[in-house]
Every structure is written in C-alpha cells, then in structure tokens.
Specification:
About 25% of the residues lie in helices and about 30% in strands. The protein has four helices and five strands; from the N terminus they run E-H-E-H-H-H-E-E-E. With about 120 residues, the chain is an alpha+beta fold. Strand 3 and strand 4 form a beta hairpin. The chain has one domain.
Amino acid sequence: MSNISTDECVNSCHSINDAEVLEWRSITHCLYDHNEEGDLSTEITAAVADAEDTSVTTITTSPLFEVVDIFALEELFFGHSVGESTRDCDGQVQFCYRGFRVTVTSAGRITVAEPVREDTSAE
C-alpha cells in the first residue's frame, strides 16, 4: 500500500505545535461507497463534523476544497475505468483539516484523528 501524505500536515494545522504532538488518536470512522448516493466531500465533511460534535453546516466556514483537491482524490481512488482496464489503486491520502488529520483509503474508509499532545503540566 502506498501512502501519499502532505509533509507539512502538522504544520498546516495552525493550532498544532509539532513538538507537542506525540501521536494521532482516531476519533471517528466512516465508509464511503462511491457506488451509492452521496459524494466523497460530503462524507469527509460529515466525519469531521462528527469529530467536532457539531453540525455539518458549521463546517462551511472553512471549505474542504481549500486543503485538498477532492475531485483528484475521487478520481484517484474511485475514477472510471481506463479503456478496458479497471483502475485498481491501493493506498491512502492524509491531509489536515480543521485541526484534524483526515485519512481516506482506496477502500473508501475515512478516518478522522486528533493530535495527542505532550503533557507539559508535570514540569
């Protein structure tokens, strides 16, 4: 499985200090089926809203298209056949959105993770 990730994922999440993040903790998952009604952008936005415990309508203040090319992602993993060959791609893409790390896999799994920060209160 190949991984395509933004190298500056942590740095692009403006509220996250790279030195404080120990790991990412998964907080919500969903499965996107490109053969069903709905689109990938809506599913990702709904997963992030679930992680924030908020409504999808509040997510519109920071549009998803500003951090990832959803059309390219859709085409990469779920695009049409090329000639007589099917497009078999196995991988994942990660990007930061609203302070979360979002992972989308070629199987349609969407995972939203939050940063686990170093506890500096004991010092």
